[in-house]
Structure formats: structure tokens, C-alpha cells
Amino acid sequence: MQDNPYIDIVFVLVMFDILTGSLKAWKTDAKRHVNSTKGLNGLAKHSLILAMIAFLYPILAAMGLETEANIFLTYFIYQYGVSIMENLDVLGVPFPMPIRKKFEKMASRSDEFIKKDEEKNDKTK
Fold first, then answer.
1. pTM here?
2. How far apart are alpha carbons 39 and 25 in whole angstroms?
3. Which residue has the higher pLDDT, 78 or 100?
4. Which residue, 48, 49, 39, is CA-closest to 18?
């Protein structure tokens, strides 16, 4: 487990997401978003994800499912990458137009998927 670069990447991205999220919260024109409860919930979520990886990855690897475990880690790499990009965007870090367009397209697809899923769940209730 300690030789897996995916785990290292997830750990670095979690730390960078915490840093950029904190900076975003303290940005002058975003101060209304500073909320200790939200910050503590975020830290708890990050801690839970890291604990889950530390617990599940060795089990999956021992079962011979290291490829699947790496796919699992890739999902978190993607999610944290998007979160960091959102934070940096709010902080005013410029992105090249092709990256910005791709990011906006991914965000709209994600929003559509979430909306469809919520509508589906509402119908089943």
C-alpha cells in the first residue's frame, strides 16, 4: 500500500483541497461563506475518506482486486481535482479556455445527472 502512487496523490489532493477551500472561505468577497460548522464537516468528510481508503485498500489488494482498488482511488482523485479547480476558480486563478470549457461541460453533466437522480428518487417515494 505504501508504494502506491494513487494513495499518495489522493493524500496530497486532500491536503490541497483543505488549503484551497480554507482560502476560498476567507476570500474577501466570499466572507459570508465562512462557517465553522461547514469547515468541521469538511474536515470530518476528508478524514472519513482517508480512513476508508486506509481500511479498504489493503483488503481489496489482499483479495487480488488491486486494479479495482486503483479505480476506486482514481474516482477520489477526479473528485478532489474538480473541487480544487472550483476553489481556485473562486480565488481568481486563471485557467486556459480549453480547460475552462471542459470543466464547465463536466460540471453541467454532473448537475444534469444529479437532477435526474433526484427526480428518479422523488418518483420512487
1. 0.71
2. 9
3. 78
4. 39
| 39 exposure class (CB count in 10 Å sphere: 0-12, 13-18, 19+) | middle
Distance set, CA 19 to CA 4, 71, 82 (Å): 23, 25, 14
DSSP string for residues in 60-103 = HHHTT-HHHHHHHHHHHHHHHHHHHHHHHHHTT----HHHHHHH
**Percent of the chain that is helix, strand, coil (3-state, to 5):** 85, 0, 15
Q: What is the C-alpha to C-alpha distance for residues 11 and 49, in angstroms, rounded to an integer?
A: 10
Amino acid, single-letter form, for residue 103 = F
